[in-house]
Amino acid sequence: MKRILYMLAFVWMGIGMISCEKDLMDYEGEEGVYFYVQWGAAWGDTTVWANQSYTPVEFVNVAGNTHEVKVRIMATGRVKDYDRTFRLTVDKDTTTAVEGLNYETFPEEQVLKAGTTYTDVTIEVKRNENIQEEERVLGLRLLPTSDLSIAIPEWKKISGMWSSEGQQVFDASVHKIIMSDFIVKPKQWIGGVYDQPGDTESGRWGVFTVKKYRLICDQFNLTYEDFQSEATMPGAKQAVIQEHMAKYLQELYDNKTPVLEDDGRLMWFMGVSWTSVVGVPWVPEQ
Fold it and tell me: Average pLDDT for residues 80-102, to the nearest whole number?
């Protein structure tokens, strides 16, 4: 019995030594970088969100004229005790966005700090008229350096994680930021059922226009999402907006600086002292 126990002890010692040797083995693959940008449905488990090939930026849901996009870059291999550099450039083949108008420039040389396996690079994108009717794309591409190569040229779905949006296989050295600012009448727009030329504005807020919508957002620091449900735009809030906007427009009108819609008519909310007819420009009193 003792002999059997000694033999088992030697076997476990051998397994332990093999395990230690494996732990001490160096990473044998290439040490490089790749994009790892996760997002998915808000109701889902964020730990299994898919790695996505693009990041959508819908300015209708952004307060203000700029937005910061954090793009995560991961590194393969062991953690190092020194800084390493990699390159991040604009991918000309996929980019339709305009530098300075749709995005701010960013440093091409980026740093992966000592003791880390990833870094988040912040890209600032900007609201511009050129994204009101069509999307603009800012393509980002990773390039190798003497410190880090390109780790994963092709990303595939990982078991246990969600599939990427639209496609399951993509180039992990390229990531796209897709910008848009398409604005249509939101669900909780109160009033303005009749919006054809010749119609007189009515309801709390009158006819929907992008200019009127933007002015409300500026005055109340709202986003498009705030107009999409009764929970975010209850009746009491609708009344507050109507009263404030009517007072605001009336004061500007009384000061001889009225706000006009694109067709030249006076901007209208219930409570102002004038009527407004779609397609009929305002004519100041002489």
Answer: 97
Q: What is the pTM of this model?
A: 0.70
Rounded average pLDDT over 10-33: 51
The residue among 30, 113, 33 whose CA lies nearest residue 71 is 33
Q: Which of 174, 153, 167, 32 is nearest to 93 (CA)?
A: 174
**pLDDT recorded at residue 161:** 82
> Residues 215, 216, 217, 220: what is their CA dihedral angle, to the nearest 10 degrees?
120
* Domain ranges (residues) in the chain: 32-180, 183-286
Q: Which residues contact 283 (CB under 8 A, 6 or more apart)?
A: none
CA pair distance 261, 195, nearest whole angstrom: 13
Written out in words, the top-level CATH class of the domain with range 32-180 is mainly beta
Residue 183 CA to residue 169 CA, distance in Å, equals: 32
Q: Is the pLDDT of residue 27 over 50?
A: no
Q: What is the mean pLDDT of the chain?
A: 88
Q: What distance in Å separates the CA atoms of residue 194 and residue 183, rounded to the nearest whole number?
A: 19
Place of tokens 């735009």: 233
